Amino acid sequence: MHRSGTSLLMRYLESFGATFPPNLLPSAPDNPDGFQESEDFVAINEAILHHFNSPWDGTWPLENNSQSRPTDHLILECKRSLENWISTVKSTNNFLALKDPRLCRTYHIWHKSQPQNLLNHGVAIIRHPFAVVQSIGYRDDMPAAKALLLWLRHNYELCTQAKTANQQWPIIIFESLLNEPNIALQTIKSQLNLEKIKEPPEIRSSRTELPNQLDQVPPELQQIAKDFFNAIKCYKFAQEIPITMLSQIENEINNNPEWSYLLLSIETNRRHQLGIALAEQRQKQSKSEIITKGLTEYQEIAQAEKSENQAFIQLTNASIKRGESVIIERINLKISTGERIALIGANGSGKTSLLRLLSGLYRCSSGNICFQGDPLLPIIEPTLGFSDQLTGIQCCKQNHLLYHQHSIKWSDFFAEIEKFTELGEALNHAIATWSQGMRLRLNFALTTARAPTGLALDEGLAAGDQWFHRKARQRLDQFLDERATVVIASHDTELLKRYCSRGVILEKGKITYDGSLFRALQLYQAELQSLVN
Amino acid sequence: MNYYWRLLPALIYSSWLRMRLPYKRTRMGKSWLSISTLLSLLVLGLVYGQLTRVSNWQAYACYLSIGLLSWNFLAGTISASCDLFIRVRTQLLNQEIRPSYYVIEQWLTQLFIFLQSGLLIGIILIIAAPSVFTNFLNGGWLGLINLWLGCLWISLTISPLSLRWPDIAPLIPVALQLSFLASPILYYSKSLGKLAWLVNLNPLFQWIRLARQAWTEQFDWRLQFGVLFLQLILVLIMIKYLDRQRWILVEKL
Lengths: 533, 253
Fold this sequence. Notes:
The structure holds 2 protein chains of 2 kinds.
Chain A (H helix, E strand, L loop, with lengths): L5 H10 L2 E2 L19 H13 L20 H17 L6 E2 L6 H10 L11 E3 L2 H12 L3 H22 L5 E3 H6 L1 H4 L1 H7 L26 H15 L9 H13 L1 H28 L11 H7 L8 E12 L2 E12 L3 E5 L6 H8 L7 E6 L5 E3 L12 H13 L5 H12 L14 H13 L5 E4 L8 H16 L3 E5 L3 H7 L2 E6 L2 E7 H16 L1
Parallel strand pairs in A: 1-2, 3-4, 7-11, 7-12, 9-10, 10-11
Antiparallel strand pairs in A: 5-6, 5-8, 12-13
Chain B lengths: L1 H5 L1 H13 L10 H21 L5 H26 L1 H4 L1 H6 L4 H30 L2 H34 L3 H14 L21 H14 L4 H24 L1 H7 L1
Helix pairs in contact in B: 2-7, 3-4, 3-7, 4-7, 4-8, 4-9, 4-10, 7-8, 8-10, 8-11
């Protein structure tokens, strides 16, 4: 978990020849030797946690918050990232080491994404709970009780993940690693046949005395954590920790209402304090510092060679020109089956043109587009009929004759559309009398009734009303369950977060970033903020 | 052609709707098409019959009716082709339907208008002169098919051309008007006197001639079947060609 010495362990592994993923986070005052964490992998883990409605410091179980939504897109994103990383590794002599404290909670998703068992070893590094509470409290200003519950949650899930993986994950106690690194690393060295190829890291950590008791934390909770830690220390591998012990911890952190009330009161107090601080800040009209990062540094990673999966659609140096103006410029993009991609960019950046290209409505002026199967089905502008004097029924009938006459009877088709759109009597009237929302509703219903393998949605969809939230999202969920591909162009970050895992930023017809959605949204928002200022 | 065969019900349905839509709010509905054509025939027939001193009014009525109906169909199809792709711009940019679909759809609409307009007139003519029906069976149907097919491939040609060269669209109504006035539709060609040779230079009139050949002169089965064969080939070629031009059309929109 966080503040447990994962960075130190990585530096030791580096001395044995470990290769780290690209795009590592820069060092920080609280971690001057660097985190050895890749921004790309952190972003995916954040996306996984977000999928389960949990922040990084969420202390509740992920399963209860899953909303029964499928995780296929996340699994695909994990797989793609791992394969990307491996494809960029030149030397085969080294072993690869991936570190992120969030893996304690997200490993089950990564585990499902490994066709060739890419993550075939694991190490559980565990630190004394009070030390973690001190460190995390200092760094993140987290109340001790919450930090202790976070320690319990992470280490409990770490042990259960080890059992799920069914691999021998050696336990390394941080304090032992500091004092006697050779002994602490013995198991992993023999397990992986590691040999030192360079000098081990210099230990800079200042060793502070551990308190006997934590302030403002119920003694029972402290005792539970200490007992769990002392028990863990007795085992060599995480798998060996008995299920009975894990069940006790699970029962405490999942089912004990006392700890839930404790967390609730902490959160309430924290919100109150935040509200006061925010009000003071507004009064002073202080401007927050805007962190802007250049987009170009991410381009190389975004454009790195992708997985060997057969692409559903592949664009190679694709450009669209209209007269002298270039709408899309030399885009390289590979979309695999089942991917959910968000197209992000300002108006006029070429999002709609790219959607039309992916839908086969436009062709490349230069470059190449290759489809494995049908192009995406476009929902870009409402195209209900040739005239708005047509009634809703006439539009449905025309659509039925165009696309469904051999597959479903007209009466059944219309009944389905009527039920889905909830337009009722309005279907008998000319669509000229309808609101924009009603038109979008019928258009969405008629298009998605075709059961496409891929959808290209433009932002107009997000203008949907309450109906959209109730019904259209349900249909989109169902559609995505069937491993269909979707590309959404929108400014609605909530919509994108809900449906997409990969983000592509377009700027003046060029792709400036292609990677995880979280990172893409961060970069885009930073870019917008810098423009505002 | 399988694509269009599969979509034939949709084509027929939307063309039928297109024909009916302008009369949606009226009491008489699409019957206005028959009534307005009948009124035009009556007025124009009386004026031009008097002007050209027609002796056989029954033959003139048949001559005028078939000529005017055919011309209306021809002019309607060509006029509608001029801005067709502009009118269906949204559909072309957002649906994967092939461009020829829209041309065929508007051509079918004109065909329905022709049939609807001609229905009442046909009944009146058959009652007044039963030979009209006999002539229809003796080749009249083939002449009309040639007229319809001719309009289809002309439409398939003009639609993309007028998108490529927008100046075509304002020229077409002028050309149609001049061609109408110079064509023996309201009058017999003998009324042109020494200028009768001009009729042979009028390309659009040739389809009118083919359409009413069974009623006005010796029916030439060989010529009619030859034209039918040629036009069928032209239609197939143009549909295939236009569908391949889809992306070029979209770029022009």
